[in-house]
């Protein structure tokens, strides 16, 4: 890490080079109180950069488009894009910048429509409201020596922008149905090794048990118990093929405390006992794939 102060084009600059995560990266941060008319570029950077204007105003030019920018706005310049920006001659801006990267961060910006054609975002708040964006940026600057802390704060920035500017799906009957179906499947995939009761799943969704059962079946063609059984059995098949764990251990790993109940269910599902299945020639596991999402697309209009 290299820190510089009072250099050309900045008052404070830290080369953090936090790139251990492919998802979110922070290469550099700094701030500058610009002189009237101070300009930078045209420049093409190998990484994206976000400027957060704390006061004053200025302009950004990308291609033939000019953007007027003022206090409590950010402007984003993607990697590989030629840009020129200039402080106002009468009210020059003061800004902080973050050189950023990572697949998830770029994807989040793209999802929000923040790019070279729409690089300016207003992050101001009403008087009396907490300026969440500024607080997060300040936290990054004050904790710049802590890599995981800074990366965590970068995720907070994404969360703030997504919450404020992200597209909200309308609460149509179909979108709500899809939400409940996804919740059931994720619940099962997370808790299949534990005792699962329909009342618990229905309570998680906040729905009546009978209504949730019917909704899930209409959307997927499966009962909830049927999907739970398929997920458990497919997981057991995978463990039998890929490990030498005892059958009793595998039974417990997929939610069965009684090995005899497990063996009976497994034989009914797979056509043979667990010990026989293990000796079979390896091949594709039949049944519903545990990582699949068996929603009928024609019904859900996905």
> Beta-strand percentage?
15-25%
Question: Distance N terminus to C terminus?
Answer: 47 Å
Number of helices: 11
Which structural class do the helices and strands define? alpha+beta
Main pleated-sheet profile:
7 strands, antiparallel
Helix content: 40-55%
Description of the structure:
The chain is of the alpha+beta class. The chain has two domains: 2-165, Sandwich (Jelly Rolls), CATH 2.60.120.10; 173-300, Arc Repressor Mutant, subunit A (Orthogonal Bundle), CATH 1.10.10.60. The protein is 42% helix and 24% strand. The protein has helices at residues 103-111, 132-142, 147-165, 173-191, 198-205, 209-220, 224-242, 247-253, 259-270, 274-279, 297-300, and strands spanning 2-7, 10-18, 25-33, 39-44, 48-55, 57-62, 65-70, 73-77, 82-87, 94-101, 120-122. Strands 1-2-3-10-5-8-11 form a seven-stranded antiparallel β-sheet. Helix 4 (173-191) packs across helix 5, helix 4 (173-191) packs across helix 6 and helix 4 (173-191) runs parallel beside helix 7. The radius of gyration is 27 Å and the shape is elongated. The chain starts with a strand and ends with a helix. Mean pLDDT is 87; it is low at 284-302.
In short:
By secondary structure, the protein is an alpha+beta fold.
Task: Considering the chains and any ligands shown, give keywords for the structure.
24% strand, 302 residues, seven-stranded antiparallel beta sheet, four-stranded antiparallel beta sheet, Jelly Rolls, Arc Repressor Mutant, subunit A, disordered C terminus, 2 domains, alpha+beta, 11 strands, 11 helices
């Amino acid at each position: 890490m290299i820190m510089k102060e009072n250099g050309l084009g900045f008052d404070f600059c830290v080369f953090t080079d936090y790139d251990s995560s492919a998802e979110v990266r922070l290469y550099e941060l700094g701030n500058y109180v610009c002189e009237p008319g101070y300009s930078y570029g045209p420049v093409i950077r190998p990484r994206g950069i976000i400027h957060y204007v704390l006061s004053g105003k200025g302009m950004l030019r990308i291609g033939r488009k000019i953007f007027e920018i003022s206090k409590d706005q950010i402007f984003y310049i993607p990697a590989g894009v030629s840009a020129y920006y200039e402080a106002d001659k009468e009210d020059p801006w003061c800004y902080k910048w973050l050189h950023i990267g990572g697949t998830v961060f770029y994807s989040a910006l793209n999802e929000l429509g923040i790019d070279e054609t729409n690089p300016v975002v207003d992050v101001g708040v009403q008087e009396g409201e907490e300026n969440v964006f500024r607080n997060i940026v300040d936290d990054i600057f004050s904790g710049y020596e802590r890599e995981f802390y800074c990366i965590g704060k970068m995720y907070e920035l994404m969360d703030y922008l997504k919450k404020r500017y992200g597209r909200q799906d309308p609460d149509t009957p179909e979108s709500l149905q899809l939400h409940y179906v996804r919740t059931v499947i994720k619940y099962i995939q997370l808790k299949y090794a534990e005792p699962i009761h329909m009342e618990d799943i229905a309570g998680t969704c906040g729905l009546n048990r009978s209504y949730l059962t019917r909704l899930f079946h209409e959307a997927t063609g499966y009962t909830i118990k049927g999907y739970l059984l398929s997920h458990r059995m497919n997981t057991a098949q995978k463990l039998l093929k890929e490990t030498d764990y005892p059958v009793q251990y595998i039974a417990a790993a997929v939610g069965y405390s009684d090995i005899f109940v497990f063996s009976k269910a497994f034989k009914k599902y797979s056509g043979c006992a667990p010990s026989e299945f293990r000796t079979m020639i390896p091949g594709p596991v039949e049944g519903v794939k545990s990582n699949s999402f068996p929603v009928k697309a024609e019904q859900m209009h996905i």
